[in-house]
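Need Putative signal peptide peptidase sppA's 3D structure for a figure. Predict it.
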Amino acid sequence: MNITRESIFISAFRTFCNSLAGMFGILVGLIIIGVLFIFASKPAMVSDKTTMIIAADADGNRSLLPDSSPAILRINIHGEIGTRDLNAKLLQTQLLDSREGALKHNRVKGILLHINSPGGTVDDANNMYMSLVAYKEKYKVPIYAYVDGMCASGAMYIACSADKILSNPTGIVGSVGVIMGPNFNVSGLMEKYGVSQVTLTQGKDKDMLSPYRPWKPGEDDSLKAILAYDYERFTDIVSKNRPRINKQKLINEYGAQVFDPPKAQELGYIDDGDSSYSSALSELVTQAKIDTAYQVVELKVPHPILSDLIEGQSPLFSGKIKHEIQLTPALKSEWMNRPLYLYSPALTTN
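Structure prediction for Putative signal peptide peptidase sppA:
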């Protein structure tokens, strides 16, 4: 009887192990098939970094045209600038790839910036603007911007690269300014509850604006100088590229206020505050001297989730889970203490 019970146990355990191994094998197989399907179903690749997507023209046509047909490159400026999905490096990749692969032989005759953004980091906004201006000058193509919701702060900075800015009749335009912070000081609270800390530094003001001690007068002077420089550059860019805006009026009257599109047109921020996507695209096609059937294309960078899986950066494979405290609902933790061309009223609410 003892032998019989042992045999039944071993048999059941073996069956369990076989079933578990079978389920694991099926899971691995499904993952492999899924990855292969993703790569097999990709649209035409322009390079190993971007994928070409066919977008609708002004008449709503999305038919694939011959490689000899002229093309308009649509670049989406959607969301916060300086994030993983929208930054200078990605834009530069799109611009480089627009001269290669299926778009080589000077197919791209114009760029349409489709904007719906509150801005973001100073560095990315400036580098994106400069890349677009350099592209326009090198290849002699017009750039138009179409605002579909919001063109504020850093997005306005980037839009200044366009020959013409058009907007739908609703939305937000403006916010020419720079912000850093908020910075908190908890030294009084620490003293109240008897909490102390020590920070080891070398170099005067290395622990500038430390939240754990009372702040010294003038220790933020260098940061204020940086903000002043970034603001001066912003106002220079706007007044240079939007000639109907007087720089002194921009600084002393308009400030970092935001405006509805009709008012923004009146002040000179944009050229047309009552446009549509089709109208803006049609105007760009005319400006680019395109008189035949044309293709509107977008160059998409692979989705970050797919990139994480391929590069092994997903928590599923790396086993790493990032925990962070959001100090304010309006600002990313990695943006703390960085100059921002960002429209975010919550940052300045008293």
